[in-house]
Design brief:
This protein is an alpha+beta fold. 38% of the residues lie in helices and 21% in strands. The protein has 19 helices and 22 strands. β18 and β19 form a beta hairpin. This is Phosphoenolpyruvate synthase/pyruvate phosphate dikinase.
Length: 541
């Protein structure tokens, strides 16, 4: 049945539905109104790519989040429920949603996300019936309780991390069975009651309303303000909030979550660059707290999903005419795309990507020139380690290799060790080259990241939000260093038998993914081939 003009005009102006028939609800959105993340979701849906249905609350509500609730609950949620054929809070067929931020300008990891909203004691049996997977259900519930406690109730994350460590005895939580996860949920609920002073909310609509307001509120978080100041982003832009049907990467061995780039963001090489974690949700990859695997793991365990991802990546790059950074979930072998945006890249990668896209006919010569106009030949160099003297070279000098890690950004950086952002900032202000060494790659370290020479972490993926920020800042970044041991009490780090105190120096080789002892000499080697290609672009009409 065709909708009347009156019915169409009754749809709230600052709500947008992304789903099977978005045009039935609203006119095409704009990035300013719905943020770049939601705008790109809409474009992916228009391309026929597998995007879960979503409702977008516009940037208009950032200064008054409570004003978004009447249209959300009155018009938006029923429309989303109809698109999904599920209902929030339904004990038999519950709709669960993620609640995400999305500003007009990309701000990776600077604002909050909540997953599995709508799960409660009443809807647990319904999700069990839908999925037939008790482990997934209890895993989703414990994730919701912990994230809601931190984002909405403001409780400290270590409360729940310590309980998780106790339950796993320091192991991987993916090895917990549903009984262990159910017991963990009960412990989390007790922690919430004790420290929040009230029970965890069991009304899914209450959960959703509070989550939406908390995500809007995260626009004003200190790390988000620091990021905007660093990158000159207008405070008045605000953020949209995306309420999207959940897909579950934590539903078993044929599921998982990942982040990828359509090209290598360090070199620009035209090959997919993917981090993937089986039986996990997206926050496990981007949070910086978990190591991930490359595309080989995905290709081996889920070949059909890998083929679908390759095809989707080609479509994204051809449609957006630029290298894309995308997030995805695989549920029971089926691919779902959750985000795409222009990927952060090094100067060398920026030049190669622009040149390659122009030569492939995806962008005009003028566009390639504009994308590389700010770069100079001195930006197109490769850094290499070198002996400090002829005597060292004559003696067959070799640096002491301490460990290997995953490289999120190429280059070489030396500096003294700092284990906390406060010391890193203090020493950097004194003019001392510093390396920030941390257990996890955290976006909360944004102010320190802009001052240090490099970042080394014990855990984390190359595509974690903090690693993406480090690469955007041009910082050498090594993550997931399994041999790194940090002793915060003694203020030391160790790699096997080799121990170093705060203030001593290390060198990070982002080209090879190696940690070396001491501060080593570096030489810049011009990338002559890339310099010639760039000059030809500028010289030819």
């Amino acid at each position: 049945m065709k909708k009347s003009a009156a019915a169409a005009s009754a749809w709230p102006r600052h709500l947008h539905l992304i789903g099977p028939e978005p045009a039935a609800k609203t006119a095409p959105p704009t990035p300013e109104a719905v943020g770049s993340k939601a705008y790109h979701l809409w474009r992916m849906a228009q391309l026929g790519l597998p995007v879960p249905a979503a409702l977008v609350l516009g940037t208009h509500y950032t200064r008054d989040p409570a004003a978004s609730l009447p249209p959300l609950l009155g018009s938006g949620l029923p429309a989303l429920e109809a698109a999904c054929a599920l209902k929030l809070g339904d004990p038999r067929a519950p709709l669960l949603v993620s609640v995400r931020s999305g500003a007009p300008v990309s701000m990776p990891g600077m604002m909050e996300t909540l997953l599995n909203v709508g799960l409660c004691e009443a809807t647990l049996p319904g999700l069990l019936r839908q999925s037939g997977n008790p482990r997934m259900v209890w895993d989703a519930y414990r994730r919701l309780i912990a994230s809601y406690a931190q984002v909405v109730a403001g409780l400290p994350a270590p409360l729940f991390e310590a309980e998780l460590q106790r339950a796993t005895q320091g192991g991987d939580e993916r090895e917990l069975d549903y009984q262990g996860l159910r017991a963990l949920c009960r412990s989390y609920l007790a922690l919430y009651q004790t420290h929040a002073g009230q029970a965890f909310p069991q009304d899914p609509h209450e959960q959703l309303a509070a989550a939406v307001q908390a995500v809007y509120g995260s626009w004003f978080a200190p790390k988000a303000k620091s990021y905007r100041k660093l990158h000159g982003i207008d405070e008045q832009l605000g953020t949209a909030v995306i309420v999207q049907r959940m897909v579950f990467g934590n539903s078993g061995t044929h599921s998982g979550a990942g982040v990828g780039f359509t090209r290598d963001p360090s070199s620009g090489e035209p090959t997919l660059w993917v981090d993937f974690l089986a039986n996990a949700q997206g926050e496990d990859v981007v949070s910086g707290q978990r190591n991930a695997h490359g595309h080989a793991s995905l290709a081996q365990t889920l070949p059909q999903a890998w083929e679908a991802l390759q095809n989707a990546a080609r479509t994204l790059e051809q449609s957006f005419s630029d290298m894309q950074d995308f997030e995805f979930t695989v549920q029971d072998g089926h691919l779902h795309l959750l985000q795409t945006r222009s990927g952060k890249r090094t100067p060398r990668a920026a030049v190669r990507i622009a040149l390659d896209l122009h030569e492939a006919g995806l962008i005009e010569r003028q566009t390639a020139r504009e994308r590389t106009a700010h770069l100079k030949p001195k930006d197109l160099v490769l850094q290499q380690l070198a002996p400090r003297s002829g005597a060292e070279a004559a003696e067959g000098w070799q640096p002491l290799e301490l460990a290997r890690a995953s490289s999120a950004c190429s280059g070489i950086a030396s500096g003294e060790i700092a284990l906390d952002p406060e010391r890193a900032i203090e020493r950097a202000r004194a003019g001392v080259p510093v390396l920030l060494v941390r257990p996890d790659a955290q976006t909360d370290d944004i102010e320190a990241l802009q001052r240090v020479q490099g970042l080394l972490t014990q855990r984390g993926a190359r595509t974690a939000h903090a690693a993406v920020v480090a690469r955007q800042l041009g910082k050498v970044c090594l993550v997931g260093c399994a041999d790194l041991r940090i002793d915060a009490q003694r203020q030391t780090v160790a790699f096997g038998p080799h121990e170093y105190a705060v203030g001593e120096s290390l060198t990070l080789d982002g080209n090879q993914g190696i940690v070396y002892a001491g501060a080593l000499a570096v030489v810049d080697v011009p990338d002559l081939h890339l310099q010639r290609r760039l000059q030809a672009l500028r010289d030819n009409p």
